[in-house]
Design brief:
Layout lengths: L1 E7 L2 H11 L4 E8 L8 E3 L7 H10 L4 E4 L2 H5 L2 H7 L4 E2 L7 H4 L1 H11 L6 E4 L2 H10 L4 E5 L8 E4 L2 H13 L10 E5 L4 E4 L2 E4 L3 E3 L4 E2 L2 E3 L3 E4 L4 E4 L6 H21 L5 E11 L2 E8 L6 H8 E2 L2 H10 L8 E2 L3 E8 L16 H6 L3 E5 L2 E4 L2 E4 L3 E9 L2 H12 L19
Helix pairs in contact: 1-10, 6-9, 7-8
The structure holds adenosine monophosphate and glycine (GLY).
Adenosine monophosphate (AMP) binds next to strand 7 and strand 18.
Length: 422
């Protein structure tokens, strides 16, 4: 029997661990560092996601059969390169391949070189040149810091003054540090956003049903952006024909572009798309599963995740391995009071057991910890309440019935997840 290691501490990693633990070939799943949700055959290991030496020593000493990278920062830290160099099986992109997410200028250049549909753009290292170009484009115009900026490095400028302010913030005042020494300036795209995910073994890609995240904190898509407040899948207005087109015109050319740069991509490639009728454009690429998209996908996946991800790591992904249950899955995120701003930690949580007694409910922990035997809050997004059902409405009703049983001081959630889907 195999032992598996998942790297990360969020709801995404709990969902991956939960699905891996269901494999008949797996008897133990370690999560580093994990959270308060690990139980049964899922066990936390107190190693940080970017402590490459300790992760490597753990995997070698325990003869871990497969390591799964949840969070892109672990790839950035070089964990995949270190494991691959020693012949340890690992699912996730190398440092070179993760640039498709971590550098927006790299990603846009790759899209342009491979003819992947995306907003018209230019990259700049010079603030005045960036200003001049941005002012020459139709408004609004979008200005993006090159590097990772915790989701805040994208500014939509409606006026000439806003362009100046955005360039000052990113390039002159370096509000996001070195992430702002380069920028992408691109045209604004209208339409509906959707999250696509594709498992990749460097060459072969298998595209998932589409999902839709709800990024703003409040109902009606109001308020500041968060990591994601809820997800539905599949998205009924995205057709199978469009999915095939996205695989052929977005995912496959991206894999080809990375291979050409000696950076073959193994892992989950997640393009964020803007869809306007039949017009599909890439907003960005992520080099990991979305969170909370993974929570929904793991509820719908009908297949052995251990076999699938091991095959990816070996470069032998077979599309026939990846099957989907019929019906819909949703997740509703319960967040700490104040999130995405500052919030209190350490508040006791109750009601999860009752919630999970309802049909088809699984609660994946995100920002939770166990303190003196009591489950408490420890992050902004605290819990992902997931439900499955034959219809989207039923899945939403089940999820919200479960959400109402869970309590902690200040808990908040969106009440309109899935209500804008056609
Ligand atoms: P990104 O990190 O590049 O996905 O940008 C974050 C968010 O900014 C996206 O999810 C979109 O909501 C928005 N955004 C980014 N680029 C554009 C664009 N070219 N047009 C319209 N909205 C955009
Ligand atoms: N749910 C959005 C993300 O993972 O980036």
């Amino acid at each position: 029997m195999a032992e598996v290691l998942v790297i990360g501490g969020g709801g995404r990693e709990q969902a991956l661990a939960w699905k891996l633990a269901q494999s008949s070939q797996v008897d133990k799943v370690y999560v580093a560092p994990g959270n308060g949700g690990s139980r049964g055959s899922i066990e936390n290991v107190d190693i940080a996601f970017d402590d490459v030496d300790s992760l490597f020593a753990f995997a070698r000493d325990k003869a871990i059969a497969l390591t799964v990278v949840g969070q892109e920062a672990a790839s950035e830290a070089g964990v995949v390169d270190a494991f691959q160099a020693a012949g340890l099986a690992i699912f996730g992109p190398t440092k070179a391949a993760v640039r498709i997410e971590s550098s927006k200028t790299f990603s846009k250049d790759l899209m342009a070189a491979q003819g992947i549909p995306t907003a018209e753009f230019n990259n700049f290292t010079d603030a005045d040149a960036a200003r001049e170009y941005a002012k020459s484009r139709p408004r609004p115009v979008v200005i993006k810091a090159d590097g990772l900026a915790t989701g805040k490095g994208v500014i939509i400028a409606e006026s000439v003054e806003a362009v100046d302010e955005a360039i000052d913030t990113i390039m002159v005042n370096k509000a996001f540090g070195e992430a702002g020494s380069k920028v992408v300036v691109e045209d604004f795209l209208g339409g509906q956003e959707a999250s696509l995910h594709a498992l990749c073994d460097g060459r072969t890609s298998v595209i998932f049903p589409a999902s839709q995240d709800h990024k703003q904190v409040n109902d009606g898509d109001q308020g500041p952006n968060t990591g994601g407040m809820g997800v539905i899948a599949p998205v009924s207005w995205i057709t199978d024909e469009q999915l095939a087109r996205i695989n052929g015109q977005v995912v496959q050319p991206a894999l080809k572009g990375l291979r050409e740069q000696n950076a073959p991509f193994t892992g989950c490639l997640y393009p964020g798309l803007m869809i306007d009728g039949n017009d599909i454009k890439v907003l960005e690429f992520n080099a990991r599963f979305g969170d909370p998209e993974a929570e929904v996908y793991m509820r719908l996946l009908d297949g052995d995740l251990y076999e699938i991800l091991s095959a990816c790591a070996r470069g032998q992904l077979d599309p026939a391995m990846v099957q989907w249950r019929p019906g819909f899955a949703v997740t509703v995120v319960l967040a700490s009071g104040g999130y995405p701003g500052s919030y209190q930690k350490g508040l006791p949580i109750t009601g999860i057991e009752e919630a999970e007694k309802l049909d088809d409910i699984v609660v994946f922990h995100a920002g939770t910890a166990s303190k003196d035997g009591q489950l408490v809050t420890s992050g902004g997004r605290v819990l992902n309440v997931t439900a499955t059902a034959a219809t989207l409405d039923e899945a939403l009703d089940k999820a919200y019935a479960a959400v109402k049983l869970i309590r902690f001081d200040g808990a908040h959630y969106r009440t309109d997840i899935g209500r804008r889907a056609g």
